[in-house]
Amino acid sequence: MTSKNFDVVGIGNAIVDVLVQSDDSFLAQHGLNKGTMALVSAEQAEQLYAAMGPGVETSGGSAANTLAAVAQLGGRAGFIGRVRNDQLGAIFAHDLRATGAHFDTPAAESGAATARCMILVTPDAQRTMCTFLGASVALDPRDLDLSIVRQAQVLYLEGYLWDAEPAKRAFLAAAAEVRAHGGQVALSLSDPFCVDRHRQSFLELVEGHVDLLFANEREIMSLYATDSFERATEQVRGHCSLAALTRSDQGSLVLEGELTHLIPIYGLGPLVDTTGAGDSYAAGFLYGYTQGLSAERCGHIGALCAGQVVTQMGPRSQVSLKELVLEHLP
Amino acid sequence: MTSKNFDVVGIGNAIVDVLVQSDDSFLAQHGLNKGTMALVSAEQAEQLYAAMGPGVETSGGSAANTLAAVAQLGGRAGFIGRVRNDQLGAIFAHDLRATGAHFDTPAAESGAATARCMILVTPDAQRTMCTFLGASVALDPRDLDLSIVRQAQVLYLEGYLWDAEPAKRAFLAAAAEVRAHGGQVALSLSDPFCVDRHRQSFLELVEGHVDLLFANEREIMSLYATDSFERATEQVRGHCSLAALTRSDQGSLVLEGELTHLIPIYGLGPLVDTTGAGDSYAAGFLYGYTQGLSAERCGHIGALCAGQVVTQMGPRSQVSLKELVLEHLP
Asked: How confident is the model at residue B2 (pLDDT cuts 50, 70, 90)?
């Protein structure tokens, strides 16, 4: 696989995050389910924004966060996703390219504005998200730069794209293309409600087309419609060559054939904001994987990157992940 | 003065900040003078932005930061400044209103985009700023809502406005209006180079129209074209009823007639980013002043607010300043 030009190429929603400190009563008042992601219309987004406190804007998007971190780690990263040609779209593109990642999906010239995700961070460091998908939904198979997809060792897809039908088609076309050229497909399940909305379709994907699966406890249980994490674990084991299952402060499990590697958490400081924890875990794992490291070591790099990002506000590390790995996992 | 509807009304540039972690070599490479503010054209801003690392966007503007903090402290705050009707303009307006401050200057319908300030934060926590003034420059006397200005106990003006001729005229018209209605005028000198560009004009203003002056050591020395802080101190003493002179980690001096109050710094944690330190000091001071507190106590509240904001990235406190004051200065 080393003749490829990219270690990891991601397809996902191109989103700018608006981070706001909030509290449980605000979530209750607006009917928001803590720790999950809800889709909102432009009108709902306006109303919610008007009610929120002062925010901080930072580039986000699940797969985009992962690819930014892969680039920060020193991996060759590419991203495909759609912004509008507006101020937030320019910010998204700048921040991603500034990490060293390749990003050249043309910005939409008309239609909805660049996607925005309002992230309410509660004092327990949990994040609750309301996403206006905007221009992200406009991604379709014609936007796919297959010359980049073919050059990926691993194609990384976020489950959130399943909420946008044309993006889902782009996603499947890219998965077929990368596999036809000897690459592998990785999927993040993204969110328990997202899994719930698209369960059958995700099951077919996981069972037929996914080499590496990333999910947290609630997502994998939602996929197999079970309330037993152990049962979900046994079900997924047969279907992907590798599955990394994260369990918040209980660490993570990496399933590799019949083996189960238990990975601890890396507590690097007080917990501030869990936004981007899963995205960073996937980044560390995929970086290690494309460097040819063992599954267990990939899990440790993922856990370390996640451990760093939860000590700060926002989904992308403000310290060098490359130096972090050199320091903690030499 | 208590019959007024606003404790403090500010006039200033309406700016969104782009905060980026940087280093001394980047400053040197781009000819930037550490700790100061440089004005850049739209083209220069584009070039610099393309060269910078990933950023975080947050509402800024010197006087706007001060008024946001006055509102956070519980004061009745208003702000006058011009954005464009674009995405960053909407973010600026939201963040200011979300603090409780009044802000209704109409957004420009055409012309340059909302002002943007690229703030390069070096590992020593110093901030170096490059500002594209954009729509801020479009503020002119016709934008002044005199019904708000007349209702101010204190009108607060940032020296940076002197770089935009129509804004300067608006600023002088507002100062005359507030004084005619029994209010007072406060001025922040903003930046040593800004003072240097407009020294004569600032001297006339300070000597004839300013009741409360805020400046740091380099600014007050620039105003009186002297390399002696003591000499500058004696010169300013006669001209304003109150002058608060900040000296970074050496604390601040509050000059009140013949009295000099020495105010210590409040070290609340590791120094992260000095952006907004002066703005927060002015906020604490003006809040105390409009509550009728002694000049010395006003200085302490200012120093406390500044001590908080330097422990975080960005110019506006992420913790409640009201609670901070209750805790440290009950």
From this structure: low
Place of tokens 């601040």: B252
Computed on alpha carbons and rounded to an integer, the radius of gyration of chain B in Å comes to: 18
Fold of the A6-14+61-110+136-328 domain:
UDP-N-acetylmuramoyl-L-alanine:D-glutamate ligase (3.40.1190)
Q: What is the pLDDT of residue A3?
A: 79
A100 near B CB under 8 A: no
**Bridge partners, residue A6, by sequence:** A152
**Cα–Cα distance for residue pair A70/B209, rounded to 1 Å:** 57
Paired tokens of A258: 């019949």
A171 and A181 Cβ atoms separated by less than 8 Å: no
Structure confidence by residue, pLDDT tens digits, B152-182: 999 999 999 998 888 888 889 999 999 999 9
- Check CB contact under 8 Å for A55 and B113: no
Determine whether B238 is exposed, middle or buried from the number of CB atoms within 10 Å of its CB (0-12, 13-18, 19+): exposed
Q: Does A125 touch chain B (CB under 8 A)?
A: no
| A21 interaction partners in chain B (CB closer than 8 Å) | 318
Q: What is the pLDDT of residue B1?
A: 46
| Entry pTM | 0.95
User: CA B197, B201, B207: angle at the middle one, nearest 5?
Assistant: 130
Separation CA B6–CA B273 (nearest Å): 30
Separation of alpha carbons B149 and A111, rounded Å: 41
Fold classification of B6-14+60-112+135-328 is UDP-N-acetylmuramoyl-L-alanine:D-glutamate ligase (3.40.1190)
Backbone angles phi, psi at B6, to 5 degrees: -125, 140
Q: How far is A21 from chain B (nearest CA, A)?
A: 8
Question: A55: which chain B residues are within 8 Å (Cβ-Cβ)?
Answer: 91, 94-95, 98
Q: A 189-228 residues with CB below 8 A of B? A: none
**What average pLDDT does this structure show over B128-134?**
96
- Establish, for the pair of chains A and B, how many residue pairs have beta carbons separated by less than 8 Å: 58
Instruction: Determine how many CB atoms are found less than 10 A away from the CB of residue A124.
Output: 11
